Every structure is written in C-alpha cells, then in structure tokens.
Amino acid sequence: VKEITRDIKQLDHAKRHLTTSITTLNHLHMLAGGVDSLEAMTRKRQYGEVANLLQGVVNVLEHFHKYMGIPQIRQLSERVKAAQSELGTQILADFEEAFPSQGSKRPGGPSNVLRDACLVANVLDPRIKQEIIKKFIRQHLSEYMVLFQENQDVAWLDKIDRRYAWIKRQLVDYEEKYGRMFPEEWCMTERIAVEFCHITKVELAKVMRTRAKEIEVKLLLFAIQRTTNFEGLLAKRFTGCTLTDAPGQQKRPESPLDQTNPFLEDEPGDDGGSEKDEDLTKPRKPKAPGNPFHGIISKCFEPHLYVYIESQDKNLGELIDRFVADFRAQGPPKAGTEEGGAVLPSCADLFVYYKKCMVQCSQLSTGEPMIALTTIFQKFLREYAWKILSGNLPKSSSNSGGLTITSLLKEKEGYEAAKFTVDELCLICSILSTAEYCLATTQQLEEKLKEKVDKVLVERINLTGEMDTFSSVISNSIQLLVQDLDAACDPALSAMSKMPWQSVEHVGDQSPYVTSIIMHIKQNVPIIRDNLASTRKYFTQFCIKFTNSFIPKFINHLFRCKPISMVGAEQLLLDTHSLKTVLLDLPSIGSQVLRKAPASYTKIVVKGMTRAEMILKVVMAPHEPSVVFVDNYIKLLADGNPETFQKILDMKGLKRSEQSSMLELFRQRLPTPPSGADSGPSLSFSAPTPEQESSRIRRLEKLIKKRL
C-alpha cells in the first residue's frame, strides 16, 4: 500500500507547500504595498486612511514573525516601526500646534484631521494616547490654575461655588466644541472632571493649611456641603470608569461608603428620631451602589474637621446646661399628668441631636473624626446621666447609712418615717423610664456608629461604660422605691415586736400593724405600677427587691416577739397569712385588671413567708417531750444553725437551764453531713414543694378556725 500511495503523498505535500508559498507571497505583496502607502499617507497627514491601513499592516506583519531571519522581511518590519514612531511624533506635534501648552496663542478648534489622528493613536503605542489626553486636559485646565491661584480672593472656601460653576461651564463648552473630536471610549469629559477634582483637592488643602486659623465651623460645613453636592453630581453624570487608570489615581479596594452610605438611609437634617428614634430599629433598605466620586475632593477637609468636633463639644455642653435649667424652671413631672412617669423630653432631644451629628459627620468622614465624635457622645451621655437623671433623684432619709441618734429615736419611739410624696415617686419612675430609654437607644447608637465608621475602626467604638451608667441609674431608682416602701413599713414592724404577745387572750382579726403595712403598700404600689406601665420588667424587679427586703426583716422582727403564748402565736400566724396574701397580690394590688404575678416573684413570696409560718408553727408546738420538739424543728425549718434554734426557744419563753439541755439535744439530733461536703450551719434538707407548703397552710387555717 505504501508503494502504491507514495506518489500521492508527494503530490499532497507539494500542493500544501505551493498553497503556503502563494499565500505568503500575497501577504508579502500586501505588506510591501501597505508599507509604501503608509509612508506616503503619513507624509500627507491622511490620518483617516492611515488608521484603517495601519491596523491591516500590523495584522499582516504578524504572519511574518517566523521569517524575521530574512533580511528583506526584517527591513519591512523596521519600516513599519519607523512609520509608527513617525506617526506618533507627528500626531503629538499636530496636537501641540492646535492646543499649545504655553504662549498667548488661543487653542484652535476641532478638525477632521485631529479626529482621524485620534483613531490612529488608538492603534499606536498606548503611551501616545495617554500623552494626547494629558496634554489636552492640562491645556484645558490651565485657565483654572490661574484664576484660582492660592493668593486669589476666589480661592477661599466662601467662594468655593465658583470653582464648581467654572468646571460645569468648561464641560458644557467641551461637549459643544470637542465632543466629537475624541473617540467616545476615551471618556474625555469624565477625565477632565476627574483631573479638575485632583487639582482642586490639592489646591484647597494648600490654601486651608495656609489660612487654618480663619476656618470656622459654618464656613467649613458650607464648603463640605457644596463639595459633596458636586461629587454627587459627578456620580449622576459619569460612571467612574476612568478612576482606575487616571494619572496618580490607584484603584481603591473599597469605598468608605460601602455598606454605610448615609445618603441612602438618612437624609441630612432628618429629624425622624423625635419618635424615640424608632427608625433605628426598622429593617434597612437594600443598599444602592456607592458613589465612586465620594471623597475625591472632600477628603482634603478631613484634617480640619477638628473644628467641627470642637463645635459639637461646645454645642452639646450648652444643650446639657439648657436641659438642667429647663428642669429646674419647669420642676419635676407632676403626678396625674401625662408627664408623670414618662420619659423626660430632654432625652429624646439629646438623641435627635446625636443622630443629626452622626449623619452629618459620616458624610464628612468615616475615619478618625467619627471616633472623636464618639468620644464626645460618650462624655455627654455620662453628663446627662449624672446631671439630669442621678442629680435629680430625691434624697432618701435612709441613704445616709449607719446608726444615728435620729434612727435610734425612730426605732425607740415608733417614729413615722418621712416618705416620698406622690410627685417624688412619679419623678423617680420618670427618671427610671428615661434611663431605660437611654440604655436601649445608646445600644442602637453604638450599632449605628459601627455601621458608619470604617471597618478598621469598628473595634474602637464601645459605649458599654455609658450603658452601665444608665443601668446604675435604673438600679438606684428601683432601690429608692424599695427603700421608701420599706421604711414606711418599719414603724409597723417595730410596733409588732413591742406588742405583749404573752398576754394575748384570744385570736381576732388581723392586728393593727398588719393594717398599717397593707395601707402603705396600697398607697405606694399602684402609683409605681401606673408610672412604670411602659417598663413592666422594672416594676417586676421592684416587687422582687421589695419582697426580698421585707420578708427577712419581717422574720427578724418575729424573732423579737418574745415571749409568745399559744394564742399570741396563733394571732401572729393569722397576721403572717394576711401579709402573705397581700404580698402574693402585690403586682396587681389596687388594679382593675387582674394579672397573674410572675412565677419567679410568687416563688420568692411563698418560700419566704412559708418559713415565717413554719417558725410560728414550731413556737406553737409543745416543747415536751424535747426529742419530738427538736425533731419537729429540724423537719419544718431545715435550719442547722444553733442561733436560730436559740431564738425559737427565746420566743417560747423557756428558762436558760431548759434552753441549755434543748441546745445540747439539738446538736445531737442534727443529721451528719455526707463526707466531703462543706461543713456549715445550714442543713442539706430538700425544700418543701409548694404543694406541701399549701397543704400545711390549709391545716393551720383549719386549726385557727377551730380555736376561733
């Protein structure tokens, strides 16, 4: 087969070589003719024909890369390069003649020759195109450099509008005269605008450094506003495609406004925060693309924003002083009015101003000035907490602490403690509600600031200390309310401990001291509940703290009731049950709407008052036989402290000799704690369940009814 097809293969190879030779010769003919034509057209400046021909010659020349060893081919290649070089030099000279960079000769108008020259420049070395663009823009902006020199009156910030008006006129003029001269893909209008921005940024920075002492807040804000408006105008007109390859302009990995463009969510001067800044918690709208021109000029103002920050420091100081003066002039909120217990209006005013400052500053800069503004915010949040909130809390008579002659006299004579007036209670509730609003809004403020600031600075924004300050105001307010009600109940408890319980002959209705305690509770609690209607959780905290304070105090006064007869113990048991019922109903006492008390609160009341009932039950039990009495005590109270057992014996009125034997027996009967457990006075008895406690109370109630 090979022998048969040998001749056919030779013919195939010959045909392929012949075809290649013919094609190459055709290309060579085209190249030689094209180079001759190119040189002739270049001399005649026939740029329209050159633009098409040059691209074709370059494409044909690519086919001869493997033949560059042939002298004639290499010579043609060098002639093409020489033609390209000559074209570049010639086109630059033509543009220099039409648009001289120096001299008094006015620039010429657009011409078809220059338009075609631009098409040729597209095919030539990119540096030719860049040089044309650079020279044209420099010549176009040369007038601007003269008009707005640093020593000119129009160069200062108060005339900044004239800069932007000038470039607007120039761009319109360019579009009319030269719009068709340059290829559309060169984006010459945008390039002129971008170069204007770079020059303006440098010139403004220079003039502001020279005249820094003359910069005032209003002037600075005016200049920034006009500049950012102009940057916004550029964003609407241009795409920003030249920012990545403009001279001296590097591509920015991210814009300062990425994800946090305040223009897209907060308009300047937006006072929507008057509704307690509810808009801070609304779901945010999807972000529109950022402005690629943001900061292209306005960045030059950043070093001078300390003027703005100092101004806000002064303004906020005056605002706080005005709040203090208004509070003193108007007085605290009055009970029975809309203001009673409500958030202080000054609080909303403060955060509205904060929001306005934050939005304004974020438009000026998202860098260090935002951190400086945050520090100012922190300072005046603390001042508001101290001067407006803590500073206006009523002083409690029990705040002085320690034993004084007055407190001893109160204890001895059954002195009626000075209570807060209804207006003072309303004021405390109002301050508590305001502190809660401040706490929640400060948290939102921190989140907003973190959104506005540059990502690298987020960690430096921390308002935890200020939130803790408001939490402290809330705790102090609740403590004052608790102390007031607690102090009001003290005389009644003192009266209870001084009653002759040994001589009580029969069990009657609840004792007068119980009636007095219930009266104080019914006076205070409805007022506090109504004024804390908007902050229900803090009213619950008040109830829990009062109960945690009152029940141990009540039990301590129980131990002072000694000696107690059987009938006296039954009367005390009845009183204890009455107090327990009132305490269980405390959250909704005096309310038309019956609401079930929180389970956590009910558990505290049941546990504490059941202990008081168990103490009285132990006191009522006969102390003979001793072993039964001791075991009964251990079972009911689950308290291994000998001091508590001693107090029970004192309440029963036992003699010291009887008490000694009882105490010895008590120590013997105490169960041994498990090995490895911490030794202590309290025993590890399991607390009775609420069902067991309620069944015991029912048995005690039946016992009281039988005796009655």
SSE layout:
Layout: H1 2-44, H2 47-61, H3 71-98, H4 112-123, H5 126-147, H6 160-178, H7 188-210, H8 217-237, H9 262-265, H10 306-330, H11 345-364, H12 368-389, H13 405-413, H14 422-452, H15 464-498, H16 512-531, H17 536-560, H18 566-584, H19 599-620, H20 626-637, H21 642-652, H22 656-669, H23 690-707
Helix pairs in contact: 1-2, 1-3, 2-4, 3-4, 3-5, 5-7, 6-7, 10-12, 11-12, 11-14, 12-14, 12-15, 14-15, 14-16, 15-16, 15-17, 17-19, 18-19, 19-20, 19-21, 19-23, 20-22, 21-22
Explain the overall architecture:
The protein is mostly helical and 708 residues long. It contains 23 helices and no strands. Residues 1-327 form the Vps53 N-terminal domain. Residues 273-282 have a biased composition (Basic and acidic residues). Belongs to the VPS53 family.
Describe the structure concisely.
The protein contains 23 helices and no strands.
Give the helix/strand class.
mainly alpha
Uncertain residue ranges: 246-289, 398-415, 674-691
How would the global form be characterised? elongated
User: How many beta-strand elements?
Assistant: 0
SSE string, helices as H and strands as E: HHHHHHHHHHHHHHHHHHHHHHH
Q: What is the rounded distance between the termini?
A: 136 Å
Provide mean pLDDT, rounded.
76
Strand proportion: under 5%
Q: Which radius of gyration do the C-alpha atoms yield?
A: 46 Å
Portion of residues within helices: 55-70%
Helical stretch tally: 23
Largest sheet features: none
